[in-house]
Amino acid sequence: MEYDIMSKKEFEKMYFFGRLRGLHGNGSEAGHSG
Questions:
Q1: How many angstroms separate the CA atoms of 3 and 17, rounded?
Q2: Buried b vs exposed e over 5-14: b needs ≥16 C-beta within 10 Å?
Q3: Rounded to an integer, what distance in angstroms lies between the CA atom of residue 30 and that of residue 34?
Q4: What is the CA radius of gyration of the chain?
Q5: Against a cut of 0.70, is the pTM above it?
Q6: How far is CA 34 from CA 1, 3, 4, 6, 31, in A?
Q7: Is 18 exposed, middle or buried (0-12, 13-18, 19+ CB in 10 A)?
Q8: 11 against 2, higher pLDDT
Q9: Which of 2, 8, 20, 34 is at 20 to 30 A from 28, Cα to Cα?
Q10: CA 17/CA 21 separation, integer angstroms
Q11: pLDDT tens digits for range 21-34
């Protein structure tokens, strides 16, 4: 099984951004941090 680190990083990034998008989709209450 070959697993590239870049793939993992990219997957984590997409997941992270996906969560942020979901949270912000409900409303810009949290705002932009960091």
A1: 22
A2: eeeeeeeeee
A3: 12
A4: 13
A5: no
A6: 36, 30, 28, 23, 10
A7: exposed
A8: 11
A9: 8
A10: 6
A11: 877 665 555 555 54
Residue 1 has pLDDT above 60, yes or no: no
Can you list the alpha helix ranges (DSSP code H) found in 1-34? 5-26
- Residue 31 CA to residue 5 CA, distance in Å, equals 31
The residue type found at 22 is G
> How many residues in the chain?
34
The encoded tokens of residue 8 equal 């993992």
Band the pLDDT of 11: cuts 50, 70, 90. Answer: confident
